[in-house]
Write a structure and sequence with these properties.
2 strands, single chain, 7 helices, two-stranded antiparallel ribbon
Length: 162
């Protein structure tokens, strides 16, 4: 698979149209050497600069960026592929967040169970067991839903992170 190079692409387009680096640089209000660095890929242009270069070449940005693996979304170039390391990071982060939420959810579950046990005048041992069970169920539900969300994310992105 060929690797996409923005600088090579715009250079090819510029040369095919017989446009000089100086005229493009003049339209962009930059020096010819700066523009030359963009074509040589020694400098990465911002989105604004990319769109101005494409406009100066008289091309459509979608055509110029074709094959890059990037698409334009709300003024930013985004990739359709997500690195596996990022997916793994999101999985671990979601589990840490789930643990934090579970720690916040467990005490109210304990208090609810405690109130019900007191209402029905249950023994201390049974109250402890019910409180423990309520906390486990609450934390289990948090982990279940977070895991379900992560699985949907993985399915939507098509990257397993393994």
């Amino acid at each position: 698979m060929n690797k996409f190079h923005f600088g090579e692409r715009v250079k090819t387009i510029r040369l095919s149209k017989g446009i000089t680096q100086e005229s493009i640089a003049f339209q962009l209000n930059i020096t010819q050497s700066t523009y030359s660095r963009i074509e040589a890929q020694a400098e990465t242009p911002s989105y604004d600069k990319v769109s101005k270069i494409v406009e100066a070449l008289g091309e459509d940005i979608a055509i110029v960026m074709e094959g890059s693996g990037l698409r334009l979304s709300k003024g930013l170039f985004v990739t359709d592929t997500i690195p596996k390391a990022r997916v793994r990071f999101y999985k671990y982060l979601s589990r840490v967040v789930a643990l934090g939420v579970a720690v916040l959810v467990a005490p109210p579950a304990w208090e609810l169970a405690n109130g019900l046990c007191n209402e029905f005048a249950l023994s201390k041992d049974l109250t402890r067991l019910i409180r423990f069970s309520a906390g486990c169920v609450a934390m289990g539900l948090v982990f279940y839903w977070v895991n379900k969300i992560v699985k949907r994310y993985v399915k939507a992105t098509g990257v397993s992170g393994k």
